[in-house]
Design a protein that fits this description.
The complex is a heterodimer of chains A (117) and B (115). By secondary structure, chain A is an all-beta fold. Chain A contains no helices and eleven strands. The chains are: A mainly beta (117), B mainly beta (115).
Chain lengths: 117, 115
């Protein structure tokens, strides 16, 4: 149980285009989803927290107009990188938290590698 | 603000031996959770073990156990009978009771296992 999927796993795009990454909880309802960014050999940096039906809460320094987050249902959150540039190239990971069971536990997706040319 | 520090960027252990990964944290809160996550080369984050701060007993999950020293704000991970599949990046993480489930990660320790 507690599986989280991400799609796509890899994406390459041209500079200036927008890219959408989906995060789905497959077998549970995720009241809260989180989006992280990870550079090679570094730790995970929290970008934003999204609750179903609410606006996302962004961490300091994260541009909310550049990284659009939508959490339209209890099983789906999307991250859209708008007008992507090479510096946005990174590994993006989502996680989901349920309201049942271990409510403190986050379940992570497999990540999406974004390369902006 | 809470911080998590892993002072060992890299560690190495012989197969079947025991290794301990260090983690310290800073917080003014009394109630919180602590976690160890494993990130293998696939980059899938895997929960290894969790500890609730109000519990004095150290958590154990098969070959993995923690040494939780609340007063010292220390949360080390011990891996016994190390296996080749244990090779990965290990992250220590802190979660407050009242910040909506946000995880604060340490810098990570890359563990290699020698056959």
């Amino acid at each position: 149980g507690a599986v989280v999927s991400q799609h796509p796993s890899r994406v390459i795009c041209k500079s200036g285009t927008s890219v959408k990454i989906e995060c789905r909880s497959l077998d549970f309802q995720a009241t809260t989803m989180f989006w992280y960014r990870q550079f090679p050999k570094q730790s995970l940096m929290l970008m934003a927290t999204s609750n179903e039906g609410s606006k996302a809460t962004y961490e300091q320094g994260v541009e909310k107009d550049k990284f659009l987050i939508n959490h339209a249902s209890l099983t789906l959150s999307t991250l859209t990188v708008t007008s992507a540039h090479p510096e946005d190239s990174s590994f993006y990971i989502c996680s989901a938290k349920t309201s049942g069971g271990f409510t403190d536990t986050q379940y992570f997706g497999p990540g999406t590698r974004l390369t902006v040319l | 603000a809470q911080t998590v520090t892993q002072s060992q960027p890299e560690m190495s252990v012989q197969e079947a031996e025991t290794v301990t990964l260090s983690c310290t944290y800073d917080t003014s809160e009394s109630d919180y959770y602590l976690f160890w996550y494993k990130q293998p080369p696939s980059r899938q984050m895997i929960l290894v073990i969790r500890q609730e701060a109000y519990k004095q007993q150290n958590a154990t999950e098969n070959r993995f156990s923690v040494n939780f020293q609340k007063a010292a704000k220390s949360f080390s991970l011990k891996i016994s009978d190390s296996q080749l599949g244990d090779a990965a990046m290990y992250f220590c993480a802190y979660m407050s009771y009242n910040q909506g489930g946000k995880l604060i990660f340490g810098q990570g320790t890359e563990l290699s296992v020698k056959p």
